[in-house]
Design brief:
Aldehyde Dehydrogenase, Chain A, domain 1; 2 domains; Aldehyde Dehydrogenase, Chain A, domain 2; five-stranded mixed β-sheet; about 350 residues; alpha/beta; 12 helices
Length: about 350
């Protein structure tokens, strides 16, 4: 096993790049198959799943090129001496992938590590393991030795503790929630390994009186409910200036109400189910808390007339108080939170109120 890993580390960058480029080609050739698996596992509509595969292939092309541009440096030194900086692969990577983009998240871990000459073990979400396996199959069919990139399944806590306690692991890469990211960083600190974190957020959107209202609404509704709102960079807190607030709220609710929710494999669906049974329950709790504290429910707010599947209707809440849990915790679902502001200073203050470390 270690022989193949050492061989990959010593392989010229252009040869490593060729494997990534071939993998990108295979992703494009197998896009329909990969998109179908992603939809069946995670729920997103087919158009979004196919777009995800296309983006993953583009990521491979990008890292194939960037891996060939890892240059060293010559540092200024006194006469008669010389200092060179040479970049070397950091070593084996432990990578933990989220379920919301089961194709792209796996590629985003594999591509830069392999381009740099590192070996890697990925731990995909237990809910989207099939997508990860199919992506790895593309890499292997493109010529990557099986030992260089491996996939492990199991109880997340057990797997992370085992991998991060090993002195062999030299880098941690994680995509997921802030609390889990903090826990993994604590484990990584014991061996002082390199870490890269892509964590959750609670994105504010500031809507001013002088905006193009129709264009703004079309853009924001599309971004809010993409992937059923299960996107770490999705807009969540919509802060709208007083002068346009009522028209914005009415237009946002009308567009949201018109969205077709259904099976991700159905071409007529504009939003699919959520990824697992936990998410609709979590969203229902946040909506219930907000309305209890005074928010107005403009549309949605329930599973849509039945408990079959992990569906939750696209939801718009108006005049949501700051004390509501949804205004302080990332909803990670199809919920838009509307509130008012008067001045630019008020809007900026609220936009920056939340810490990224919560």
């Amino acid at each position: 096993m270690f022989g193949k890993i050492r061989e990959h580390r010593a392989t010229p960058p252009e040869k490593r790049a060729a494997v990534l480029t071939r993998t990108a080609q295979l992703l494009r050739e197998r896009a329909g198959h990969l998109a179908r698996i992603a939809t069946l596992e995670q729920g997103k509509i087919q158009a979004e799943a196919k777009g995800e595969v296309a983006f993953a292939a583009a990521l491979l092309d990008f890292h194939a090129a960037e891996g060939q541009r890892v240059y060293g440096r010559v540092l200024p030194r006194p006469m008669g001496s010389r200092s060179l900086v040479l970049h070397q692969p950091v070593g084996p990577v432990a990578a933990f992938c989220a379920w919301n983009f089961p194709i792209m998240n796996v590629v985003r871990k594999l591509a830069p590590a392999l381009a740099a000459g590192c070996s890697i073990i990925i731990k995909p979400s237990e809910e989207t393991a099939g997508s990860a396996v199919e992506v790895l199959r593309c890499f292997q069919d493109a010529g990557l030795p099986g030992d260089v990139a491996q996939c492990v399944f199991g109880v997340p806590d057990m797997v992370s503790r085992h991998l991060l306690a090993s002195p062999i692991t030299r880098k941690l890469s994680f995509t997921g929630s802030v609390p889990v990211g903090k826990a993994l960083m604590r484990l990584a600190a014991d061996t002082m390994m390199h870490t890269t974190m892509e964590l959750g957020g609670h994105g504010p959107v500031l809507v001013f009186d002088d905006c193009d209202l129709e264009k703004t609404l079309d853009t924001l509704v599309a971004h809010k409910f993409r992937n059923a709102g299960q996107v770490c960079v999705a807009p969540t807190r919509f802060q709208v200036q007083d002068g346009i607030y009522d028209r914005f709220a009415a237009g946002f609710a009308a567009r949201t109400r018109a969205l077709q929710v259904g099976d991700g494999m159905d071409a007529s669906s504009q939003m699919g189910p959520m990824a697992n049974a936990r998410r609709p329950d979590a969203i229902a709790e946040l909506v219930g808390d907000a309305t209890t504290q005074g928010a107005t429910l403009l549309t949605g707010g329930d599973r849509g007339g039945g408990s079959a599947g992990f569906f939750f209707q696209p939801t718009v809440l108006s005049d949501v108080p700051l004390a509501a849990r949804a205004m302080n915790e990332e909803p990670f679902g199809p919920v838009a939170l509307l509130s008012r502001f008067e001045t630019d200073e008020d809007a900026i203050r609220e936009a920056n109120r939340l810490s990224s470390a919560t």
